[in-house]
Every structure is written in structure tokens, then in C-alpha cells.
């Protein structure tokens, strides 16, 4: 039925066009010039599709013959869409005839044909996203007020609005200021005038997309991928409008309509939305348009200058303290249908109802959805909350997960800061910074003690546990790719980190999940995918693909690295390592020193002295930089026997890693309380005393093969 | 044993980018050897020297520059004199007065200067914005529009505004795009990647990879350029094969060696000579490290550097 209606609309427009051209030829003669003013593209749509420039009525008549060949009548969607394109081309012909003899068929406020200069000017903000989309509104809204509200909603988002038909008079009636300058462009009253906005999209493809005229496939790809236009058509939708709409759909522009009769929805292309007030949200979602948030709507300032601000007890209006009462912060990915973008809900009492200086519960859940969203990104977003909330003037935030503390100052409260503003900040920052993966976002803020207790235990803690499990189950073998990180190349030009699930970046700040998220969010950025399809020696952790990547990213400075050996082609270091591990020859083991440790090590070198021979992107067999978390990894120097080689660490570091290191040693070697066998500065700062201690404890390294 | 010269051959070359129109048009890049390594292979397009003038006129000009341009010179006069300077290949108009933290001149006023200069000379033209990213993203598209058909180089698109500047200069008005990054090979490459993803032809991009005055951390500049040329030639990295242009005058004339007055530093000698020396040394180092063009302002520096290039290529 839909297809038949499109065919019949197409036939009607074709008939009109044929009649109009014949009449024009009868009146002016076949050699009469035809075309639009101020464009180098003659009839831009026809030129772009076919590569042929039409300049006279005779050529126009021939072009109509070409259009006829598009009008195949198989009962298929694609035939219907091509008939839509044919309808659009006919519309262009009819409009072109209006301009014969330098006529000016359009008058204030209508624009009709738009000059090339406008497209060049318009193209730049379209490319930068300053104009996030182009709305084409067709027909008359149910009431003038609804129509104007819709136009204004797009205008407020920076979207360029073009108007065709009854909506123009509705805007005039309510005195709406229209014009190119305010991004509301009335085109004309005839439905054929819609071609003037199509012409903009098509010339944009020719100018900005370097699409070759005649390359119809390239043209359609460009308009559907790069021109963020969509159509809002008000009922009644007749066959002609439907046929024109089919043309829009073929260009990749979805059509949203409040018509519900005699129409069949086509998912993502022809969408029925009976509620005009929801046209905006439906259209943006259908065209995948993301609106940039330039200003966060809160009553206090937001800047990194406030990040370190301390709020003393006496200055605070209210405090949320996760160490005393139930509090949490959580990011959860959801299905797009479950989320209403920018919905911020406060569930429970607002700040006004809390006693001044009291301790309260708070829990906020940021729910996100997006086509490229992965649940692995949740902790990456969540970790940014600390910085986001701290950047609010008069708000202090510490901790993470369910161990947070948030203080709101009396000044911020007096300025009008309330619970929902936390949501506004989180919403704006997440949408802006993670634009590549977040399409929709909503925030729920709970301030009831009961809700917080329940959600903390039933929702948040299980989510955190699940994540921790995921992290501990992530092994180098269980993933298909590793990531490079070259963030530090500015000062260490030949260094490349290969980040794997069990070997995080040596700075300690880039885990495999972080690298993965960085890659997704910034595809041309510092973290690139490294495949691991060509293993050379799995126990050394050497791969041909890894070597190729390292060579490429170090611009040839490094030929090969192993992931698990400290002796053979060890991974290089930039200089930001949390720890340095170095060979201790008397015990066949290694010592580890962390950056914070200022004393002497049994190697006779302090941390800075060790650092000077480990950094700078050079390979020094026997020495390597690494993150603290790597110490308890089963991949730590796996090629040389693993963690049982560790004979000495500063006491503080040893205590930090004890639990997990003991667990690893038990699992790998069946040794209980392994860290008790490891020396520290209180036991020995020289090799002789250390070896005596190790012998006494029966440290396993003493019986291992020498490392060199 | 006799010395046996083995030329270093690369199967890759730096892109050739043409700026300007007609007889005076210049070509940057095109070589497939390291800077000045003419013993390894030919360098068809010798590095070029550009002369900087500013929308601020002769404010802060040295006595010799004032004498060269003549006090009260119009922008058109300055442009003609700059183009006629001995050793000059092209002219660079700096729109520093547009900086919101400085004079904050309105865009229309700056465009008037741009048009006056554009009409006065047929020498290839480079236009440099005010360095404020927001202002530049409004200003530079307008500049690209105003100079349509002149094939100018627009400096510069940066990480923050490459879309606006790149789309206007590189797509809408078919000019050349300067891609500016801060002394880091990866940032330079990343900017080239995203700019080409925008649709700008890689062969319409010239890089400004950042600079410093000699003695002020200049070794970072050397190592960055060195590595860029290395990756471009030995690794055939298409995203680093854009020729490099380096604004030298800005850096060289704003360090204490060039700025300290003779009253404060009598033992340092003539202030003008010191500035010229800094400018010449920085330019020579930039060219040796891999710049395909330098931007200078003092007539003596322009002449000296042009001579140096002539002797070496």
C-alpha cells in the first residue's frame, strides 16, 4: 500500500512536470536557458546524480526522459525509494522553471533557491557540529503554537530549521522572527520548494565531500552519513508528500510524521509520532544527532580551579559520608528505550529538608545508553565523577564507589545549589566527554536513607563485585587484542607501552580497560589496537604482531619486546614507572623499589639511580619499570619463573601488595605467606645481610637457576 | 681506503604543496632526502623564506625595520615592500590584533586588512590568525572566504578548532591548511589524521609542528622534526609527509636576548643585532632540522637565510 501510494504520488508529479516543461517550451522555445541563480551547479540535484549539466529547456526535456528510467514499478521498497528520488528531481525541474528569465518567484519571508555562497558558509558549522542538524518541517502543525514550539525547540539546539507550506504562516501568525541569520529559513509554500533544502545537502556533498557529479552511490553515502538532516511532516500526508518523503529517505533523512492513517512505519526511516511535542526527541534519536552542551545549568561556577577546594565542617550545609551511612555512586548501561535523555530525578528530600551540618545518605546512578557503549566503560566514567563533582564551586568530593564523601558548602546552598544540580553536572560532563559512546543519559539521585541502604546493597555492591570479578578473570589469554600506549612519547620518544589485562601500563594509570576505552573514545589517539595472532614464544610473551606494532609506534627505535621477561628484550620505560625491578645476582632474585622509597636498596642504588638506567625508552636487560599492580600478576617475569624471584621490597610497598602477592604465590607455588620471606629496608640494605636472611627463611629464589 | 659514498635512498617523499598562483607560486616539499642532503639526491624545491607583516603595522618594529618600511606605511605598502625584500619567497600576514586578550579587533577590521594586502601583491600569501582558538575559528574561515582563488595557506588549524578552520580553508574555499601542534610527533600525526578524516586532502596540508627560540628547549623541536622526517621517509608514513612551515620571528624576537634594552644590558651590545642573530640562528636550525619554510621579519635575517639556502641547495 505504501509503495503504491509512492508510485502514484511520483506519477502525479511526473505528469505535472512534463506538462510544465512542454508549456514552457511552447512559450519560450526549446533553446531558452534554464537554471537557478548564483550556483555553479546548474540544476544541482540532477547534476549531482547524473553528472550532466542542464542549461536549456531542450536539455531539461531530455533530462526528464532520464528521470523516467528511475521510475521502475516493481513492488519493492527500493523501487519506491528510487521513485522518491525521481519525484525530487521533478520538483527541481518545476522549481527551475519558476526562475526562467531571471524571475524572482520567492518573496519575503520565503527564500526559495539558496546560493552557493550560503552553502559554503553553512558547510563549516555543519562540519564542526556547531549546527548539529538540519530540520525540514513540512505542512501545518495541528495548532500554530505547537508548530512554533517545535521550531523554537530546534532553534534552541542550534539546528537549522527549514520550513515548507502551512508552518510558515503559523510562524508568521505568532510573530516568530525568521531568517537565515536566526537559523529559521522558510523556503516556500509549494511542496516542490522542499527541493531547495535537498539542493543544499547535495551541493554540500559536492563541495565538502569531493563527491564526483554522476557518482550517485557516493552522493547517497555522503548525504546519509554526513548531512544530519531529517524531515518532520505534518498530517495530512498525501501521495505527493509521501513520494517526496521517499526521496528524503533514500538520501538517508528519516521522516517523522504525526500521520497515523494509511501509512506503514519503516523502522529508522518513516516514523509515526502522534505527539508533536515529541517530534524533537524522536527526530534527534532517529538521525543520531547529539547536541553539544556548552553551558552547565547550575547556580554556581564550574571550573578546574575549584577542584582542590576544601570545605571545612563549619562551612558546610550538609555532608554525605559513605564511611558512616550508606552512600554510593554508580554508572549503569541500559537499553536506549529505558532512558529519557537529560531526565534528572531526585528521589527523596532535597537539601532544604536536611538539618544544617548534618550527615546524610546519598546515592546517584547515572544511566547511559549508546550504540557503541560497553559495560567495560562504566568504571572508566565513574572514576571521573570525583573530578567532575569537585570542579563545582562549593562542593567537595572524595573517594569512589560506595566510599564517597560529598560536602556542600553553605555558600553553594545559598546560591541555590540543590541535589538535581549534581545530576546536571554529571549529565553534561558524561555527554560531552564520552560523546563517542554515550547517546542518551539520565541521572537518578536518591537521598532517602532507606533507598540508599537498599540500593547500595542490592544494586551497587553486586555491580562492583561483578566488575572486580571481570577484572580478575581478565587474563592475557582471554582477550583477543592488546593496546599500545604512547601517551608519554612527548618526552620519551622511543617508548611504547604494550598494555595487557595482566600487565597494566608502567605508570599504573592505564589498565587494559582504560586503554580500550581510550581507543574507542579517541580512535586516532595514543592507544591503538595490537593484535596477538602470531605468537613466537608464549612463555616469553613474544609475538610478531607485538614486535611490528612496537617498531611502528617507536618509529623504528625498538625492534622487539617480550611481555613477560626481564632478561630478553624487556619492555621499555618512559620514566613514569611506579616501580623499578632490578636483578640481584647474589640471590638469583630481583628487588623492587617504588618511587616513594627514598632509601638505599641492596643493589647499592637508590630509586633515582635505578631510574636513570631504566627510563628513556631503552632496553636494559635485568631492569624494568612497571606498575604496582603488576607485582602480584601471574605474568610478572613469568619467563624467569615469576614472583618467586622477588627477594626484596621496601616495607611500605610490601605491605601494600602483600595480600594479593601472597595469593599469587600460593596459587603458583603453594607457598603460604610468601611476603614474610621477602626482605625490606628494616632487614637488609646490602646483599650479604639479605642473602643471610633469605637463607634463614628458605626463600625459593636461592635454589633457582641463576638469571645470567 | 678510499671514501665510498653510499646515498641513503628512500622510497617515500614529502608531499609537494603549492601556494599562490601564477609565475610567483611556490612549492614546498617534494624531496625524498633528509634536509639539505643534496649528496643523497636532488632537492627540487629549496626551502622557502616568508616575510611576516602584521595587522598591528609597525608597532614594536626595530629602527632598521622602520627604515625599511618607512614610517606610516599603509598595509598595502608594507605588503609590497615585504614581497620585494631581498630573499623573500612569500609574505605572511599575521592577524595578531584579533586576540581577545589583546587589541580584540573586530573581524571586519581584520578582513579589511586581509583584502588590502591580498589586492596589493601577487606574491604567495600565508595568513596567520590571532592564536586564540575561539576567535580563529570564526576569523580564519572568513579569511579563507575573502581570499578565494588566491590559493593561500591558512595558519592554523589546531586540535581545538581544526574542524572549523580545516572545513573552511580546505573544503569550502580550496585554500591550503596549516596544521599546528605543540612539538610532539604523535600530536602532529593525530591532527593530520583527523583533518584528513574531515575530508581535507592530505596534499593540501602544511604542518607547523611548533617551535622555540634556540637555547630555549630547542632540542625538543629538533628531535620532533627529525623524527617526523624519519617516519615520513624511512617508514613511508603518509600522515607525516606534509611539508613543515615554522614561524621563527615570533619566538626569536620574544626572548630576553632580543628584548633586553641596551640601557639594561650595555655589555650585550646592539639590541637589534642580538634580535637578528637569534632570528638567523633559530631559522638556520629549523631548516637544518627539516622545515620546508620559515617565517622571518627582519630584512637582514631574510637575506642571510635566503643566501644560506642558496649555498646549500
List the helices and strands and how they pair.
The complex is a heterodimer of chains A (708) and B (313).
Chain A: H1 2-28, H2 44-50, H3 57-70, H4 77-98, H5 116-128, E1 134-138, H6 144-156, E2 160-164, H7 167-173, E3 184-188, H8 195-208, H9 216-226, E4 229-233, H10 239-250, E5 255-257, E6 270-272, H11 279-287, E7 316-321, E8 327-333, E9 344-347, E10 358-360, E11 362-369, H12 378-382, H13 385-390, E12 395-400, E13 403-409, H14 410-414, H15 419-433, E14 440-446, H16 449-473, E15 481-485, E16 497-499, H17 512-521, E17 529-531, E18 535-537, E19 542-543, H18 544-553, E20 579-584, E21 589-594, H19 607-614, E22 623-626, E23 646-648, H20 651-669, H21 687-697
Parallel strand pairs in A: 1-2, 1-4, 2-3, 4-5, 5-6, 7-10, 8-11, 9-14, 21-23
Antiparallel strand pairs in A: 7-13, 11-14, 12-13, 15-16, 15-17, 18-19, 20-21, 20-22
Helix pairs in contact in A: 1-3, 1-4, 1-10, 3-4, 4-10, 5-8, 6-7, 8-9
Chain B: E1 16-19, E2 26-29, E3 48-54, H1 63-69, H2 75-84, E4 90-94, H3 107-120, E5 125-128, H4 133-146, E6 153-157, H5 162-172, E7 176-180, H6 185-197, E8 205-208, H7 218-234, E9 245-247, H8 249-252, H9 256-259, H10 271-289, E10 293-296, H11 299-312
Parallel strand pairs in B: 3-4, 3-10, 4-5, 5-6, 6-7, 7-8, 9-10
Antiparallel strand pairs in B: 1-2
Helix pairs in contact in B: 2-3, 3-4, 4-5, 10-11
Structure description:
The complex is a heterodimer of chains A (708) and B (313). Chain A is α/β, with parallel strands linked by helices and 708 residues long. Chain A folds into four domains: 2-102, Helicase, Ruva Protein, domain 3 (Orthogonal Bundle), CATH 1.10.8.190; 116-287, Rossmann fold (3-Layer(aba) Sandwich); 304-466, Bifunctional carbon monoxide dehydrogenase/acetyl-coa synthase(codh/acs), Chain M, domain 3; 474-708, Bifunctional carbon monoxide dehydrogenase/acetyl-coa synthase(codh/acs), Chain M, domain 5. Chain A has a six-stranded parallel sheet with strand order 3-2-1-4-5-6, sandwiched between helices. Chain A has a four-stranded mixed sheet with strand order 10-7-13-12. In chain A, strands 8-11-14-9 form a four-stranded mixed sheet, sandwiched between helices. In chain A, a hairpin with a 4-residue loop joins β20 (579-584) and β21 (589-594). In chain A, α1 runs parallel beside α4. In chain B, α4 (133-146) packs parallel to α5 (162-172). In chain B, the strands form two sheets. In chain B, strands 8-7-6-5-4-3-10-9 form an eight-stranded parallel sheet. Chain B has helices at 63-69, 75-84, 107-120, 133-146, 162-172, 185-197, 218-234, 249-252, 256-259, 271-289, 299-312; strands at residues 16-19, 26-29, 48-54, 90-94, 125-128, 153-157, 176-180, 205-208, 245-247, 293-296. The A-B interface holds A 120-121, 123-125, 127-130, 207-210, 486, 489-490, 493, 524-526, 552, 555-556 and B 137, 141, 145, 163-164, 167-168, 171-173, 183-187, 190, 193-194, 197-199, 201, 223, 227, 230-231, 234-235.
Amino acid at each position: 500500500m505504501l509503495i503504491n501510494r509512492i508510485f502514484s504520488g511520483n506519477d502525479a508529479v511526473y505528469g505535472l512536470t512534463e506538462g510544465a516543461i512542454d508549456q514552457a517550451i511552447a512559450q519560450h522555445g526549446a533553446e531558452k536557458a534554464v537554471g537557478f541563480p548564483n550556483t555553479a551547479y546548474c540544476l544541482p540535484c540532477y547534476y549531482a546524480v547524473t553528472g550532466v549539466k542542464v542549461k536549456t529547456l531542450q536539455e531539461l526535456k531530455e533530462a526528464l526522459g532520464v528521470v523516467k528510467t528511475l521510475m521502475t514499478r516493481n513492488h519493492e521498497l527500493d523501487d519506491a525509494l528510487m521513485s522518491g528520488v525521481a519525484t525530487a528531481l521533478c520538483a527541481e525541474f518545476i522549481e527551475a522553471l519558476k526562475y526562467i528569465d531571471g524571475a524572482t518567484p520567492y518573496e519575503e519571508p520565503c527564500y526559495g533557491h539558496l546560493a552557493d555562497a550560503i552553502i559554503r558558509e553553512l558547510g563549516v558549522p555543519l562540519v564542526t557540529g556547531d549546527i548539529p542538524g538540519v530540520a525540514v518541517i513540512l505542512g501545518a502543525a495541528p495548532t500554530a503554537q505547537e508548530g512554533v514550539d517545535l521550531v523554537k525547540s530546534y532553534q534552541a539546539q542550534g539546528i537549522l530549521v527549514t520550513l515548507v507550506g502551512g508552518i510558515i504562516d503559523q510562524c508568521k501568525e505568532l510573530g516568530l522572527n525568521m531568517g537565515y541569520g536566526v537559523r529559521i529559513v522558510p523556503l516556500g509554500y509549494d511542496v516542490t520548494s522542499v527541493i531547495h533544502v535537498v539542493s543544499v545537502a547535495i551541493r554540500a556533498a559536492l563541495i565538502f565531500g569531493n563527491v564526483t557529479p554522476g557518482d550517485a552511490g557516493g552522493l547517497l553515502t555522503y548525504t546519509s552519513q554526513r548531512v544530519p538532516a531529517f524531515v518532520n511532516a505534518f498530517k495530512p500526508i498525501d501521495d505527493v508528500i509521501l513520494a517526496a518523503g521517499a526521496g528524503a529517505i533514500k538520501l538517508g533523512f528519516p521522516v517523522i510524521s504525526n500521520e497515523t492513517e494509511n501509512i506503514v512505519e519503516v523502522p529508522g526511516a518513516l516514523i509515526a509520532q502522534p505527539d508533536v511535542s515529541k517530534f524533537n526527541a524522536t527526530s534527534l534519536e532517529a538521525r543520531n544527532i547529539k547536541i553539544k552542551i556548552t553551558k552547565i545549568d547550575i547556580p554556581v561556577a564550574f571550573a578546574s580551579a575549584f577542584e582542590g577546594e576544601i570545605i571545612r565542617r563549619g562551612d558546610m550545609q550538609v555532608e554525605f559520608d559513605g564511611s558512616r551511612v550508606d552512600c554510593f555512586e554508580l554508572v549503569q548501561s541500559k537499553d536506549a528505550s529505558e532512558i529519557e535523555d537529560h531526565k534528572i530525578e531526585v528521589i527523596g528530600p532535597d537539601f532544604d529538608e536536611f538539618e544544617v551540618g548534618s550527615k546524610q545518605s546519598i546515592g546517584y546512578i547515572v544511566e547511559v545508553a549508546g550504540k557503541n557503549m560497553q559495560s567495560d566503560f562504566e568504571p572508566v566514567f565513574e572514576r571521573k565523577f570525583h573530578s567532575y563533582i569537585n570542579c563545582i564551586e562549593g562542593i567537595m568530593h572524595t573517594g569512589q564507589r560506595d566510599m564517597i564523601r560529598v560536602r556542600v558548602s553553605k555558600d553553594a546552598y545559598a546560591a541555590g545549589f540543590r541535589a538535581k544540580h549534581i545530576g546536571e553536572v554529571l549529565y553534561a560532563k558524561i555527554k560531552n566527554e564520552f560523546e563517542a559512546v554515550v547517546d542518551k543519559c539520565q541521572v537518578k539521585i536518591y537521598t532517602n536513607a532507606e533507598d540508599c541502604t537498599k540500593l547500595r546493597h542490592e544494586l551497587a555492591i553486586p555491580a562492583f563485585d561483578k566488575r572486580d570479578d571481570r577484572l580478575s578473570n581478565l587474563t592475557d589469554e582471554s582477550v583477543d587484542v592488546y593496546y599500545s600506549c604512547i601517551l608519554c612519547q612527548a618526552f620519551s620518544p622511543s617508548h611504547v607501552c604494550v598494555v595487557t589485562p595482566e600487565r597494566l601500563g608502567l605508570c599504573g594509570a592505564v589498565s587494559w580497560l582504560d586503554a580500550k576505552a581510550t581507543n574507542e573514545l579517541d580512535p586516532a589517539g595514543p592507544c591503538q589496537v595490537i593484535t596477538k595472532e602470531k605468537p613466537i614464544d608464549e612463555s616469553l610473551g613474544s609475538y610478531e604482531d607485538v614486535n611490528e606494532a612496537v617498531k611502528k609506534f617507536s618509529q623504528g627505535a625498538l625492534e622487539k619486546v617480550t611481555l613477560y621477561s626481564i632478561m630478553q628484550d624487556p619492555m621499555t620505560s618512559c620514566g613514569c614507572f611506579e616501580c623499578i625491578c632490578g636483578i640481584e645476582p647474589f640471590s638469583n632474585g630481583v628487588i623492587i623499589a617504588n618511587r616513594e622509597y627514598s632509601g638505599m636498596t641492596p643493589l647499592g642504588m637508590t630509586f633515582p639511580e635505578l631510574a636513570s638506567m631504566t627510563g628513556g625508552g631503552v632496553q636494559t636487560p635485568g631492569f624494568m619499570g612497571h606498575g604496582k599492580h603488576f607485582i602480584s600478576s601471574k605474568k610478572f617475569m613469568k619467563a624467569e619463573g615469576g614472583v618467586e624471584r622477588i627477594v626484596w621490597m621496601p616495607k611500605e610497598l610490601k605491605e601494600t601488595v602483600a595480600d594479593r602477592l601472597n595469593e599469587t604465590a600460593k596459587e603458583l607455588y603453594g607457598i603460604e605467606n610468601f611476603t614474610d620471606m621477602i626482605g625490606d629496608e628494616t632487614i637488609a640494605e646490602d646483599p650479604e645481610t639479605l642473602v643471610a636472611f633469605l637463607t634463614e627463611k628458605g626463600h625459593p629464589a636461592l635454589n633457582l637457576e641463576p638469571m645470567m | 681506503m678510499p671514501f665510498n659514498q653510499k646515498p641513503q635512498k628512500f622510497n617515500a617523499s614529502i608531499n609537494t604543496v603549492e601556494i599562490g598562483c601564477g609565475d610567483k607560486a611556490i612549492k614546498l616539499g617534494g624531496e625524498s632526502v633528509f634536509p639539505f642532503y643534496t649528496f643523497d639526491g636532488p632537492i627540487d624545491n629549496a626551502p622557502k623564506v616568508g616575510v611576516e607583516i602584521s595587522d598591528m603595522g609597525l608597532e614594536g618594529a626595530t629602527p632598521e625595520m622602520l627604515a625599511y618600511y618607512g614610517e606610516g606605511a599603509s598595509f598595502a605598502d608594507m605588503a609590497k615592500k615585504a614581497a620585494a625584500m631581498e630573499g623573500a619567497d612569500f609574505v605572511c600576514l599575521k592577524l595578531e590584533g584579533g586576540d581577545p586578550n589583546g587589541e580584540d579587533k573586530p573581524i571586519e577590521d581584520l578582513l579589511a586588512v586581509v583584502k588590502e594586502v591580498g589586492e596589493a601583491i601577487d606574491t604567495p600569501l600565508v595568513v596567520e590568525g590571532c592564536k586564540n582558538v575561539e576567535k580563529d575559528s570564526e576569523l580564519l574561515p572568513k579569511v579563507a572566504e575573502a581570499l578565494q582563488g588566491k590559493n593561500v595557506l591558512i595558519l592554523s588549524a589546531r586540535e581545538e578548532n581544526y574542524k572549523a578552520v580545516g572545513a573552511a580553508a580546505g573544503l569550502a574555499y580550496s585554500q591550503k591548511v596549516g596544521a599546528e601542534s605543540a612539538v610532539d610527533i604523535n600530536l602532529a600525526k593525530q591532527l593530520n589524521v583527523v583533518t584528513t578524516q574531515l575530508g581535507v586532502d592530505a596534499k593540501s596540508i602544511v604542518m607547523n609542528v611548533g617551535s622555540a627560540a634556540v637555547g630555549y628547549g630547542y632540542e625538543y623541536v629538533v628531535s620532533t622534526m627529525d623524527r617526523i622526517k624519519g617516519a615520513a621517509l624511512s617508514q613511508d608514513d603518509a600522515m607525516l609527509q606534509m611539508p613543515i612551515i615554522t614561524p621563527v620571528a615570533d619566538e626569536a624576537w620574544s626572548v630576553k636576548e632580543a628584548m633586553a634594552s641596551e640601557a639594561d644590558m650595555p655589555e650585550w651590545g646592539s639590541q637589534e643585532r642580538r634580535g637578528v642573530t637569534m632570528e638567523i640562528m633559530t631559522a638556520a636550525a629549523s631548516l637544518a632540522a627539516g622545515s620546508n619554510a620559515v617565517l622571518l621579519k627582519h630584512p637582514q635575517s631574510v637575506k642571510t637565510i635566503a643566501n644560506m639556502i642558496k649555498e646549500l641547495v
